[in-house]
Amino acid sequence: MRRLLLVAAGLGVGTACCPIPVPRRVSVRPRIEVTVTDADGRAVSGATLTLARWIEGPPPDTEVDRWSATTDPAGQHVFDAIEATESAMPLMMHGVPWYGWRLCAEAPGLGAGTWELGATQPVMGPTTAGVTLVPGASCSAGRVSPSP
Predict the structure, then answer these.
(1) Could you give all domains of the chain from N- to C-terminal order, each with its CATH number?
(2) How many other C-beta atoms lie within 10 A of the C-beta of residue 144?
């Protein structure tokens, strides 16, 4: 019995941090219904939208995808869902990345605003994003930063 336990322990330790790829289905981009308003709550037509997918960890804050669009006359846009199969390595210390999405909306003379979504599961369901523009702000690397 002791020999069996030693063999089992040896296999357990020997396969730890072993790069064995395991396929998993992930949301490259969940369906996101965006509505952009100005500081007074009015819909913003023609706002520039930048949506980025980030690896939240590990390693942190690595952008892997980016999409652009503009809002319609009602201040809305829908980013359709994109799913894919990727290989994760769950036995590796940093083998299973978690994603997040950052949306930055910007309109000349009205400012900019952001919205973020962190992945709570590999395949995300549809969601809505309400973005209110902040006067004097601008988009920088998918994030809002105050204008100089």
Answers:
(1) 19-146 (2.60.40.1120)
(2) 21
The pairing of beta strand 22-29 with beta strand 32-37: unpaired
Query: What span, in angstroms and rounded, lies between the C-alpha atoms of 44 and 132?
Result: 9
pLDDT in tens, 11-34: 555 555 567 888 888 889 999 999
By CB atoms closer than 10 A (0-12, 13-18, 19+), residue 45 is middle
Q: Could you tell me how many residues make up the chain? A: 148
| Coil/strand/helix, residue 128 | strand
Cβ atoms of residues 50 and 104 within 8 Å? yes
Closest CA to 34 of 15, 47, 22: 47
Contact status, residue 119 vs residue 27, Cβ threshold 8 Å: yes
Identify the bridge partners of residue 65 per DSSP, sorted by sequence position: 53
**pLDDT tens sequence across 52-88:** 998 877 666 788 899 999 999 999 999 999 998 887 7
